[in-house]
TrEMBL record:
Keyword Translocase appears in the UniProt entry: no
Recorded superkingdom: Bacteria
Name of the featured protein: 2-oxoadipate dioxygenase/decarboxylase
Keywords: Dioxygenase, Iron, Oxidoreductase
Amino acid sequence: MSRRLETWQLRASFAAALSRMYAAEVPAYTTLVEVSAEVNRDYAAHSPDAERLGSLARVTAERHGAIRVGSARELAQVADLFAAFGMYPVGFYDLREAASPVPVVSTAFRPVDSEELARNPFRVFTSMLATADARFFAPALRDRVERFVAERQLFDPALIAEARRIAADGGAAPERAERFVAAAASAFALSREPIDRGWYEELTRVSAVAADIAGVTSTHINHLTPRVLDIDDLYRRMTERGVMMIDAIQGPPRWPGPEVLLRQTSFRALAEPRRFRDGDGAVSEGTLRVRFGEVEARGVALTPKGRERYDAAMAEMPAGAASAEVWAKHFPATDEEMASAALAYYRGGDCTKPVVYEDFLPASAAGIFRSNLDTDTHAAAVRDDSHYSLDWMAGQIHHHIHNPYELYEKAAS
């Protein structure tokens, strides 16, 4: 009898398959991965505490992806698909309320158990177009967008059915697993189907993200993100290689004390060849600039009390900059003080064993989205009656959405 691959092995294979596919589609991603590995090796060589937030092997292999869908029905299919890889929805993110609003609500699919995270922490930040928000979609346009999305099929029903079976079984035999992983990865390949130019441009006037979601008949990996131990060094090295980076690193500033939550940056979205269909039916070649190369550095997870301080510190930051001086007014400079003040999570209360932040920051995500777009999204001055929420989303996708703080409490106990 053949051996069975466990869920974490399927997840590792899925992450690797997506990475290979994305590298073929976006060659600059390969450069980003290479430079990330160089940064991690060099940092580990001169930093005795380099592995305090995870082994070098885990950090270097780590990825998170990002995808976008157009409806609750499509999001429910994503939830069923990712459950086969041991990835479950955690948290609710509303990017509509960011300083640079994006008309989406999001969750992140990831492992929720500490042991599973240590084996393979692959995460996929998944955004759903908020078509019910009248600030972005007038009634007539909302109807057209929702009709367009309802008529497309992002995932083969056989793939979703197989995902449900594998999730129930907790794994699969090697040949079955190989077929499933290949089919799941290919569902996120960039389509070469012609794009209706007029429809895409109409949606772009609302939001470039709306066009990327509902202006096409497929979905795709929007970015695939490696993790680094020194994101400032990564930013410098990429710039030296001639790669155009966005203007700033999103999130907390660099400072001498404990790194917290998440810092992110990316290279600028590149013009990719796409085919367009014009009003007369003719198909022509063109380009779109929607996919970019993000990279992240992770720190210790903050408690609700710590998160309040984070929000206060970020609110005080000077425009366009993250200041270490401002940060030091809100956070102590050692893990011991962070632990004693109950600002962050540490395993067993041991300040030498920080719990890694495994989730995302909506303001940072929106900031990176905005940094890679040519136009701003503007919300109309009308009332939002959409009522998007965590409970609404959980009911729509028929999956429990985990509270990240409860997961960190469990990991710290």
